[in-house]
Amino acid sequence: MAMNKNTIFGWASFLTFLVGAALVLLGVLKYKDYAIGFSVTGIGFFFISWVFNALKGRV
User: Fold this and answer.
1) Which residues, 6 or more positions from 56, have their beta carbon under 8 angstroms from its beta carbon?
2) Is 27 inside a domain boundary?
3) What is the DSSP string of 43-59?
């Protein structure tokens, strides 16, 4: 399977979204004392994922 730029951006976007979701869930469910920090970092990962998705087909 050959991976072009769009495929790489798609996978990067998906994996970054998963990391962001995991951080938010860790903050909410396990580390309640640090929930704000985990959530802010997870939302940052969501934004990076959105940027990677927006770059598909443009670079």
Assistant:
1) 5, 6, 9, 10, 13
2) yes
3) HHHHHHHHHHHHHTTT-
* pLDDT tens string 6-49: 888 889 999 999 999 999 999 999 999 999 999 999 999 999 99
SS3 22: helix
In a domain, 4, yes or no: no
Query: What range defines the domain where residue 50 resides?
Result: 13-55
The pTM of this model reads 0.84
Q: What is the mean pLDDT of residues 46-58?
A: 89
* Total number of domains constituting the chain: 1
Task: Establish if 38 belongs to a structural domain.
Answer: yes
d(CA 42, CA 46): 6
